[in-house]
Amino acid sequence: MAYGVLYEFRRTSTNGADMLITISQKDYNGAVKKRALGRAPILKRDNNGHIYGTSCELYAECLVDGEFSHLYTSDAYEYKVEVYKNNTLIWVGFVSPELYSEPDIAPPYDVQIIATDGLGELKNFNFQKRGVASILDHLDTLMDKTGIETSWNIVSDLRFIKEDGAASTEHDILSVKLDLDHEEGNSYYDVLQGLLSSLNANITQHNGRYLILFCDVVYQFVDLQRCLWV
């Protein structure tokens, strides 16, 4: 779906990086509104099993009472947030309507806007039988419901022996076919959690892309709480 930039927040970090945050609206084609930030935004990462969800907290300066109230909507994909550092996309997500709030005081005041990466939205969809498919195909189907169009980044040294006795290449594991029909009725989130658990793998968003990390690689995610203006 097409999005147009509605709000733009820009600032130079203390280390000299050009930081840009945009809020885009579905099917919007009007002018871009440039607004200030009341304080430095924060990127966070929290883990739940093998799923490491990320979020972005920003505090927009509101000059007109209720200026950002339209962000409270029933559509979880209405407003997309993108974070750029030196013109490079480092994070993307959607404004979480249920997390929007504003103080009951006269402007100017700061409005807290929280955006999430769409992984939590997978809890709202139930898995349907789809027969035998490759691991990659199952992942594509599950992750499509995040609403985020982003490419995969796979980190794995996992190998298996093929029927001809040859060792597989780096990402051949994703071509292995599975039947997940027994998961029918479970949420996409739970199906993804189970699939990752069976592969001993984790998933998170990193530098604007979804990263799947197989735990045979010596690496460990840490909870992220990072000020964007450093």
First CA to last CA: what distance? 33 Å
Oligomer: single chain
Count the DSSP helices. Answer: 2
User: How many DSSP-defined strands?
Assistant: 14
Report the portion of residues in β strands.
Answer: 35-45%
Rg for CA atoms: 20 Å
Q: What structural class do the secondary elements suggest?
A: mainly beta
Helix content estimate: under 10%
The parts where pLDDT drops under 50 for at least 5 residues are: none
Main beta-sheet strand count, sense and barrel state: 12 strands, mixed
Gross morphology:
elongated
What value does the average pLDDT take?
Answer: 84
Q: Topology as H/E string?
A: EEEEEEEEEHEEHEEE
Annotation keywords:
230 residues; mainly beta; two-stranded antiparallel ribbon; 2 helices; 9% helix; elongated
Topology:
Blueprint: E1 3-12, E2 18-26, E3 33-34, E4 37-48, E5 51-62, E6 79-85, E7 88-95, E8 109-116, E9 132-134, H1 135-143, E10 152-155, E11 177-179, H2 188-199, E12 201-206, E13 209-214, E14 224-227
Parallel strand pairs: 1-3, 5-12, 10-13
Antiparallel strand pairs: 1-2, 2-6, 4-5, 4-14, 5-8, 6-7, 7-8, 9-11, 12-13
Helix pairs in contact: 1-2
Overview of this protein structure:
The chain has 230 residues and is mainly β. Helix content is 9%, strand content 41%. The protein is built from two helices and 14 strands, in the order E-E-E-E-E-E-E-E-E-H-E-E-H-E-E-E. Strands 1, 2, 3, 4, 5, 6, 7, 8, 10, 12, 13 and 14 form a twelve-stranded mixed beta sheet that branches. Strand 12 and strand 13 (209-214) form a beta hairpin. It is elongated.
